[in-house]
């Protein structure tokens, strides 16, 4: 496989302009002759489908939920970055670019990140025009706040519901196109395979989740905007339905998978309370602006927090990173929480938690001010834990939150299967080995509103498309593949539920491929995952049938893919003999315990290529060049 | 604690449903109601019975997927809380819980506790947007919005589209849902150009979908997990009256082909 990143030549400031000029255009009158499939209706999918519909393409949009408005982008709390420099505090496109490349620990593609920073400015304009109710100052101007890992206030927000408001903006734009007939919406529909004809993506196979019907949809190009795969870990902040099936089945059809082991652990989540736990709840990291993180200095200190005097508390982030303090990037904050808990200084049941304390901010600003900033988050915390964070410090612990890895794409967002484009969290492109806060929303909307409308036109205008329909041998083959997986899952009739397997897989992934990884553990994990997968295919119990609404069957197919993806994540983590961002290999750390990169050997994106069932995947490397931001040891001290 | 559940079981829209009794043991008070059902479903699966179908996704109270009646109250006894965030500590040992789906003509049952709420999407498609084609806008700070209006718009925009308001309403009206969107956009300068048509079209779609009319009972506000204020309905009514006077157009009557796209009504 030849990886061609298609980065335009010229100075970085001009690359996107140049690319847009060089791209071929589809004549307005010809756009209606093309059909495009968009899988997913989150920020990237809804904004992409709406924008392509506005341009005049025939779009079909798919989501597994009952409505496109439910996509998990809706749960993003904190905000969206943009280099507007409205606060006059020294922000610029270049600074957002610089922060993102550095924050990603020098494992992202510079040209993509620069484009993202450029487009960030237009995103805010677009969203405001749609009526997104961002927070405002009394003079009527937009309000900004600083957010994890940044020293400027560039984050736009709508209370603690920024993702919801941005998604509703995109969803409403999408529904406007649905009403004109330009986009056809298929809710409760899950994509189960990609149809590749003559080397190009030409359609998908779907299952109608309400009726069980398997359907074929053909098109001239296919876009996947299906989100991340954090649910490999079973417990994560992702929605229960979030899954990797679309990207994984595309991988098995020839789309390379980029940096699968790069996962983000979010430092501020509510700790696990019991075995029945079905998901983890994130508390926005904006809380770190006013909350101070600490644990007792003594190990095994069982006193309640109010009984622990000031000089027996260890504000470990402020101590170790005086210039960033509690606002260090997510990977650094998470790792430090793990370290203090591993030392036996964790708090709460099981010792897996640290305090996030608002006492000093409440004393300084008053309860009213804190309530205005974080009221809804405090209520949510109290609802779940029955503790009042105005009185008792919150307990938090890291949890899986985001996956930087995803299908490998070039500068045009095209995967290694021509005609298969990948948007948003589902691709690997912009965040390197660690994503900064308030950047996921930015990337999803950038890809959907402002990148795919150009690049897909270029693809369509550069190729000729024979008419194909569902009778094509490749389409029938894909349908057979899908139905045979379903048949097999239903016929096992074993003794263990899908969830019990998923929990066991998730625990393995968390123990061996989570916050800290080492070669021995990863090797062990690969073997154990294979064994468990074997057992899965012999002993899983999936009740019901295929011709009906069957939530167990839906989960069974997704978990089958998680097994294979989990193994690839471990293989990727094992091969990368360095630490970078969220990928922390215990063998590679500085004397102070920080991530130690190896730029000589690993300054590349790993793009894994499927070689067939039970065959080792092939590693392809896209070298990363840093012309503008020179790799340094990240320091937040 | 140990509880008795009575759950509405119905195979699909066309077959009859009934309440079925289940005993659940050793329920942890920290669990959410949905996690309790997860545990029940694991047991049912191992016993070879059909697990209970219910809609859910984010499990943090924002996606709007979940929700059913718990002892006759939409989303259960705790105010401002979706079913997924309702913990079992609000119940006590020996309690009996009756779980039923949202009941409304416009929300046909799909299976067990799951209903089809695509009518709400079609209400948005009828006009719940600002027409702002990608790439066309001016600088974001060129539009000044008084903080008070921005805050009121945000209060209304917080709606998660769960449908509890419809389920709680004796008329099965979707006035709180529709009023919330009309208020959100109508309170902002960006929403002004389409304000007249929006009110006419969205209200007309309510009738097409078979929702009832609002008679100011207020059950909707009482169960709304996002505490949307009933004043949004007054704003909708004011906009609709003003629009009916101003517009020369006949209010929108028939559902267009395209508004029937959704699940169960595929054109």
Specify the helix fraction band of chain A.
25-40%
Mean pLDDT of chain A: 96
Largest interface: A-B, 85 and 86 residues
- Named at the architecture level, the CATH assignment of the largest domain in chain A is 3-Layer(bba) Sandwich
What top-tier CATH class of the largest domain in chain A fits best? Alpha Beta
What is the first-to-last residue Cα distance of chain A?
Answer: 42 Å
Question: What is the top-level CATH class of the largest domain in chain B?
Answer: Mainly Alpha
The CATH superfamily of the largest domain in chain A is identified as FAD/NAD(P)-binding domain
Main beta sheet of chain B: strand number and arrangement? 5 strands, mixed
Alpha-carbon Rg of chain B, integer: 20 Å
Question: In CATH terms, what is the fold-level topology of the largest domain in chain A?
Answer: FAD/NAD(P)-binding domain
Number of domains of chain B: 2
Please indicate the percent range of residues of chain A in DSSP E strands (runs of 2 or more). Answer: 15-25%
Which CATH architecture of the largest domain in chain B is right? Orthogonal Bundle
What is the strand arrangement across the widest sheet of chain A?
5-2-1-9-17
* Series of secondary-structure elements of chain B, N-terminal to C-terminal: EEHEEEEEHHHHHHH
The coarse overall form of chain A would be globular
Helix content of chain B: 25-40%
CATH topological fold name of the largest domain in chain B: Fumarate Reductase Iron-sulfur Protein, Chain B, domain 2
Features:
heterodimer, A: FAD/NAD(P)-binding domain, Flavocytochrome C3, Chain A, domain 1, 5-stranded parallel sheet, 5-stranded antiparallel sheet, B: 267 residues, alpha+beta, Ubiquitin-like (UB roll), Fumarate Reductase Iron-sulfur Protein, Chain B, domain 2, two-stranded antiparallel ribbon, disordered C terminus
Report on the architecture of this protein.
The complex is a heterodimer of chains A (about 625) and B (about 270). Helices cover about 35% and strands about 15% of the residues of chain A. Chain A has about 625 residues and is of the alpha/beta class. Chain A has 2 domains: about 10-260 and about 405-460, FAD/NAD(P)-binding domain, CATH 3.50.50; about 265-400, Flavocytochrome C3, Chain A, domain 1, CATH 3.90.700. The longest helix of chain A is centred in the last third of the chain and has 25 residues, at about 550-575. The radius of gyration of chain A is 24 Å and the shape is globular. The model of chain A has no long low-confidence stretch (mean pLDDT about 95). Chain B folds into 2 domains: about 5-110, Ubiquitin-like (UB roll) (Roll); about 120-260, Orthogonal Bundle (Fumarate Reductase Iron-sulfur Protein, Chain B, domain 2), CATH 1.10.1060.10. Chain B has helices spanning about 35-45, 120-125, 145-155, 165-170, 175-185, 195-210, 220-225, 230-245; strands at about 5-10, 20-25, 70, 75, 95-100, 110, 115. In chain B, the strands form 2 sheets. Chain B has a 5-stranded mixed beta sheet. In chain B, helix 3 runs antiparallel to helix 5 (about 175-185). Residues about 255-265 of chain B have low confidence and may be disordered. The chains are: A alpha/beta (about 625), B alpha+beta (about 270). Chains A and B meet through helix 2, helix 4, helix 5, helix 10 and helix 11 of A and helix 1, helix 2 and helix 3 of B.
């Amino acid at each position: 496989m030849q990886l061609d990143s298609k980065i335009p030549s010229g100075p970085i400031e001009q690359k996107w302009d140049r690319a847009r000029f060089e791209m071929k255009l589809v004549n307005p009158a010809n756009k209606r002759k093309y059909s495009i499939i968009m899988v997913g209706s989150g920020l990237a999918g809804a904004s992409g489908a709406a924008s392509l519909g506005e341009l005049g393409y025939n779009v079909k949009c798919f989501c597994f939920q009952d409505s496109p408005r439910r996509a998990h982008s809706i749960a993003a709390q904190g905000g969206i970055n943009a280099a507007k420099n409205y606060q006059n505090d020294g922000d610029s496109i270049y600074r957002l670019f610089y922060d993102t490349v550095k924050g990603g620990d020098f494992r992202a593609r510079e040209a993509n990140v620069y484009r993202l920073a450029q487009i960030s400015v237009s995103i805010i304009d677009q969203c405001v025009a749609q009526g997104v109710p961002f927070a405002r100052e009394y003079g009527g101007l937009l309000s900004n706040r600083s957010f994890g890992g940044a020293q400027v206030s560039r984050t736009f927000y709508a209370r603690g519901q920024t993702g919801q408001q941005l998604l509703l903006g995109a969803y409403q734009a999408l529904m406007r196109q649905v009403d004109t007939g330009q986009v056809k919406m298929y809710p409760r529909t899950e994509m189960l395979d990609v149809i590749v004809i003559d080397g190009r993506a030409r359609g998908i196979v779907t299952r109608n989740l309400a009726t069980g019907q398997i359907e074929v949809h053909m098109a001239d190009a296919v876009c996947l905007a299906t989100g991340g795969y954090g649910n490999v870990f079973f417990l994560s902040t992702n929605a229960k339905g979030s899954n990797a099936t679309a990207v994984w089945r595309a991988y098995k059809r020839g789309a390379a998978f980029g940096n699968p082991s790069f996962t983000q652990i979010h430092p501020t989540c509510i700790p696990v309370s019991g075995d029945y736990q079905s998901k983890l709840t994130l508390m926005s990291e904006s809380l770190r602006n006013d909350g101070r993180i600490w644990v007792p200095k003594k190990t095994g200190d069982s006193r309640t927090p109010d009984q622990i005097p000031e000089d027996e508390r260890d504000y470990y982030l402020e101590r170790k990173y005086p210039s960033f303090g509690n606002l260090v990037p997510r990977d650094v904050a998470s790792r430090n929480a793990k370290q203090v808990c591993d030392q036996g200084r964790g708090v709460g049941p099981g010792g897996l938690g640290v305090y996030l304390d608002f006492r000093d901010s409440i004393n300084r600003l008053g309860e009213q001010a804190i309530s205005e900033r974080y009221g809804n988050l405090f209520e949510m915390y109290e609802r779940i834990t029955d503790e009042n964070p105005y009185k008792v410090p919150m307990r938090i612990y890291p949890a899986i939150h985001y996956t930087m890895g995803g299908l490998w794409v070039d500068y045009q967002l095209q995967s290694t299967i021509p005609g298969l484009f990948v948007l948003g969290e589902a691709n690997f492109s912009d965040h390197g080995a660690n994503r900064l806060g308030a950047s996921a929303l930015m990337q999803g909307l950038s890809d959907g509103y402002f990148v795919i409308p150009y690049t897909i036109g270029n693809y369509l205008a550069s190729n000729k498309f024979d008419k194909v329909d569902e009778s094509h041998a490749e389409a029938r083959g894909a349908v057979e593949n899908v139905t045979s997986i379903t048949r097999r899952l239903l016929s096992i009739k074993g003794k263990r539920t899908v969830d019990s397997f998923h929990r066991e897989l998730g625990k393995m992934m968390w123990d061996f491929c989570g916050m800290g990884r080492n070669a021995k553990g990863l090797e062990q994990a690969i073997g154990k995952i294979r064994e468990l997968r074997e057992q899965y295919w012999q002993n899983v119990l999936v009740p019901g049938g295929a011709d009906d609404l069957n939530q167990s069957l839906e989960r069974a197919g997704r978990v089958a893919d998680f097994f294979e993806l989990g193994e690839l994540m471990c293989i990727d983590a094992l091969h990368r003999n360095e630490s970078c961002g969220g990928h922390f290999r215990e063998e590679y750390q500085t004397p102070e315990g920080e991530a130690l990169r190896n730029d000589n050997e690993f300054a590349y994106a790993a793009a894994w290529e499927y070689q067939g069932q039970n065959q080792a995947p092939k590693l392809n490397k896209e070298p990363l060049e840093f012309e503008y931001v020179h790799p340094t040891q990240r320091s937040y001290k | 604690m140990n509880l008795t559940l009575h759950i509405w079981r119905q195979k699909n829209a066309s077959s009859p449903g009934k309440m079925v009794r289940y005993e659940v043991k050793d329920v942890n008070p920290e669990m959410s109601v949905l996690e309790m059902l997860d545990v029940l479903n694991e047991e049912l699966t191992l016993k070879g019975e059909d697990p209970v179908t219910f809609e859910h996704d984010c499990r943090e109270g924002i996606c709007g997927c979940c929700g059913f009646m718990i002892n006759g109250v939409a989303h259960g006894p705790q105010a401002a809380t979706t079913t997924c965030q309702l913990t079992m500590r609000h119940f006590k040992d020996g309690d009996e819980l009756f779980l039923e789906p949202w009941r409304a003509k416009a929300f046909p049952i799909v299976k067990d506790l799951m209903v089809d709420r695509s009518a709400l999407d079609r209400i948005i498609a009828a006009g719940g947007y600002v027409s702002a084609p990608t790439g066309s806008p001016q600088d974001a700070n060129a539009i000044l919005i008084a903080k008070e209006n921005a805050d009121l718009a945000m209060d209304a925009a917080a709606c998660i589209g769960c449908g509890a308001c419809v389920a709680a309403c004796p008329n099965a009206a979707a006035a709180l849902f529709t009023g919330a969107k009309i208020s959100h956009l109508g309170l902002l300068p960006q929403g002004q150009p389409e304000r007249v048509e929006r009110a006419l079209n969205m209200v007309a779609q309510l009738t097409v979908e078979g929702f009832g009319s609002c008679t100011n009972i207020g059950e909707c506000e009482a169960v709304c997990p996002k505490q949307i204020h009933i004043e949004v309905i007054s704003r909708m009514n004011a906009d609709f009256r003003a629009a009916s006077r101003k517009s020369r157009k006949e209010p929108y009557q028939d559902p267009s082909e395209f508004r029937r796209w959704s699940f169960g009504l595929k054109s």
